[in-house]
Amino acid sequence: MRIFKCSFCGDDIQVGKGLTYFKIDGTPLHFCSSKCKKSLLLYNRKPRRVKWTKHYPRQPKQSASASNTAEKS
């Protein structure tokens, strides 16, 4: 049994769940939900620009003490 990753959001897909779409060239795309499938195929969205995906670039959070010292100077 194999666990796939969603081609759009990057979440794990359990066995027996999700959707599989085959492109014309035979490449399989695995989706965890119809929301991911529509976002990629119908709306042509890029996963790096959608905030709820794992591919969205996250900025590391600054600690409160580091930001306070920067404001006081």
TrEMBL record:
Database matches in CDD domains: Ribosomal_L24e_L24
Annotated Pfam families: Ribosomal_L24e
Entry GO MF terms: rRNA binding; structural constituent of ribosome; zinc ion binding
Biased composition (Polar residues): 60-73
Keyword terms: Metal-binding, Ribonucleoprotein, Ribosomal protein, RNA-binding, rRNA-binding, Zinc, Zinc-finger
Residues covered by the TRASH domain: 6-44
Source organism superkingdom: Archaea
SMART domains for this protein: TRASH (SM00746)
Residues covered by region (Disordered): 52-73
GO cellular component, one term: ribonucleoprotein complex
InterPro entries for this protein: L24e/L24_sf, Ribosomal_eL24, Ribosomal_eL24-rel_arc, Ribosomal_eL24-rel_N, TRASH_dom
Family: Belongs to the eukaryotic ribosomal protein eL24 family.
Protein name listed in UniProt: 50S ribosomal protein L24e
Species of the source: Odinarchaeota yellowstonii (strain LCB_4)
